[in-house]
Amino acid sequence: MTPAIRAARAAGVAVRVHxxxxxxxxxxxxxxxxxxxxxxxxxxxxxxxxxxxxDPRRLAVAVVPVSGQLDLKAxxxxxxxxxxxxxxxxxxxxxxxxxxxxxxxxxxxxxLPTVVDASADRYETVFxxxxxxxxxxxxxxxxxxxxxxxxxxxxxxx
Length: 158
Prior knowledge:
three-stranded antiparallel β-sheet; YbaK protein
């Protein structure tokens, strides 16, 4: 059981666990999950870490559909920062306790400010990494936001 699944269950949130065979040669982790699970990629969300105002010690989490990209300007506005940039992968791994491609917004080593793209609200349930490559968890967007103490904002773009 991963820290993400433990965190959800400890909070009393029922999550559905979905495993699939991860291809080690595939670096497009989110689209791989959508394809393997037969899902609309707009319903599968990736977890990205950003550095606020260029400071790698000040991090925030963005959760956006795998079908698009993070809008850095919108994320900066949502975080009250002048600018944000994607965090270095090694920094993201150290901060979350997960490896790239398996970073979950749940069960991270320390709670970081989190913004979930507003498009999540279109769905009854969404999918996020369960804490390792080849593992996604399904839960309602309200539960996702509650577990991460996240805000909803339009931070994704096609």
